[in-house]
Amino acid sequence: MTQHFIVIGNPIAHSKSPEIHTLFGTQAGLDICYQRQYCPDDAASFTAVIEAFFHGGGVGANVTVPFKQIAYECCAARGGLSEHAKVAGAVNTLLLNKALLAKGVPPVEALFGDNTDGQGLVNHMQRLGWPLNGARVAIIGAGGAARGVVLPLIEAGIETLSIANRTVSKAEILVDELSTASEKINQHTIQTYATADLSGDFDIIINATSIGLSGETLPLTDKLNCQYAYDMMYGRELPFLQHFSIRGAQTSDGYGMLIGQAALSFERWTGRAIDVAQATTALENVST
Amino acid sequence: MTQHFIVIGNPIAHSKSPEIHTLFGTQAGLDICYQRQYCPDDAASFTAVIEAFFHGGGVGANVTVPFKQIAYECCAARGGLSEHAKVAGAVNTLLLNKALLAKGVPPVEALFGDNTDGQGLVNHMQRLGWPLNGARVAIIGAGGAARGVVLPLIEAGIETLSIANRTVSKAEILVDELSTASEKINQHTIQTYATADLSGDFDIIINATSIGLSGETLPLTDKLNCQYAYDMMYGRELPFLQHFSIRGAQTSDGYGMLIGQAALSFERWTGRAIDVAQATTALENVST
After folding, report:
1. Domains observed in chain B
2. Cis omega (within 30 of 0) for bond into A11
3. ipTM over 0.85
4. Which pLDDT value is given to residue B108?
5. How far apart are the first and last CA of chain A?
6. Identity of the residue in B8, B52, B106 whose CB atom sits nearest the CB atom of A37
7. Would an 8 Å CB–CB cutoff place A51 in contact with chain B?
8. Confidence grade of residue A187 (pLDDT, cut at 50, 70, 90)
9. What predicted TM-score, i.e. pTM, was given to this entire model?
10. Chain B residue whose CA is closest to A41
C-alpha cells in the first residue's frame, strides 16, 4: 500500500524534498508518494490542510517556511512535541502519535511534531569528519535556524558555544529562552556577541543567517578564525564560505544538512534508516 | 484498507454526512472513515485542503456551503465535471478521474466534480411515490438549490416547469443560463413569475429557498394549489409545508434529499448502491 507524504510550505514549488524522499523510498524498497503541498499563509489554512491530509490517510508531513511555528502550536495543543521540537520552538516533521491513536484518539488530535533540522546538521558534520566532541563552536544568527541547532550541538559534546548576531540583544534573548527551555542547555555558559565583535579562534563557525540570499556579507573581523566553516544555505555562491576558505578553513554548505534532516524524518515515519552517503551521491547524479 | 472521505465546508460542525456515510459503509460492508473538514472561506485554502486530502490518499470528498462553486471551478480546470455538475454550476461530490489517473495524471490534476443534489431530490420524490412523469412542477427560488434540480426533474419526465422568485428577473436569468448550458433544458418552455404572482394548479411545488432558516414566510397567494409540496430544508418547523398541508397536500421536508444525494455520492465513490429506505430508517433510529 502506498504511503503518502507531503512537504507543506508557501512558496513550495522550489522544494527538493520530493526528489530526496522518493530516492529514499527506492533505497528502502518502500512504496511511497511524497508531494509538494501549497498552503495559504495563515494558521487556519495550515491546520485545515494538515487535517485534510491526515484525514485522507497521509502518513507524514514535512513543514517548511512559513509554517514551522504554526505547526509547533498545532502539535503542542494535540499529540505533543519531541524535545528537539520543544527547544527549537518549531516543527519540521509531522506524524501521528501512535500511542494516542491506539487509545482511539482521532488522527487530527494525535498530531505529533518533531524537528530534525539541528540533528541533520550535526549528522552532516559527523559524516564530514568534523570534530564536534570538545569543539569550540560559534553560531552567527539568532533566528529559528540558530535556535534549532543549539541542543543537538550540545548533545554532540561540543565544549563551548558562542552566539553572535547583528543586534546582540537578540542573541541574549535567544540564550535566555533556550536555557529556560532545556536543562541541558542551561548547564552551558553560552557567550553572546554582536557579529562585528566576534573574534578569536574557533574550531567550527556556523552561519545560521539567510544573508546568503541577499548577496550582502557578514561584518566578520580579520581576528576571527576557524578550522571548519559551515553555511546552512546551499545551491549558490556563499561569501561566508569564501571568507574562511581563503583563510585555510575546510568549508561546507548546507546541502548535506538538507539530506540529513530528510533522512531523519524518513526514519521517524517509516522506521527505516537511510544510507545518507549513498543517497547523497545518487541525488548529486540526479541534480546535475 | 480503510477508504477515507471528508465533507468540506465552513461551518462544518453541524454536518450530518459523517453519520450517514458511516452507516452506508456498515450497510455495504466497507471499511470507511468519513470526517468533517473545516476550511477557511477562500479559494486558495479550499484548493490546498482538497489537494492535501487527495495527496494523502483520500478517495472522495463531499463539498458543502460555501465551496460548491469554488469546487466547480477547481474541477473545470482539472479532471472535469459531470453533466449535472456543469448545468448546476456547482459541485457537491469530488472524486478522482480514474481514466486520467491511469494515464499517469497526478491526483490533484485528475479532480472530477459531480453534483448529486438534484438527483437526490428526484430519487426521494420517487421513493415517496410522487408522480414526476407528466407532472406540472413549480420551483420557488432561483439560487443554487433551484439551479441544481432543474435538469434532474426534466430527465425524470416532468411535463411543465415554472420558476418563481421574489424578484422575477433572477428567475429569468436562471432560465436563460440553464437553457444555454443544457440542450435538454433548452427544449422545455420554462415559465417565470414573481413568487407573489405564482397561481393555479400544480402537481408538485418545491421550495428551493432558505427562507425556512429565517422564520419569514413566502408571499403565497390563495389561488396557488398543489397535490404535493416539498421543502428542501429539514430539521425544523417549515411554514411552507404547513401552508399546503392545511390545504390537503401531501408534504415532505428535505431530509430524504440529504440521504438521497449522499447515497449517490457513496455509489459514485465505491460503486456500491445503497438501500436508501433501509438506511433512512436506521438513521432515524440513530438521530432520535
Report:
1. 3-115+257-287 (3.40.50.10860), 119-252 (3.40.50.720)
2. yes
3. no
4. 87
5. 32
6. B52
7. yes
8. very high
9. 0.87
10. B45
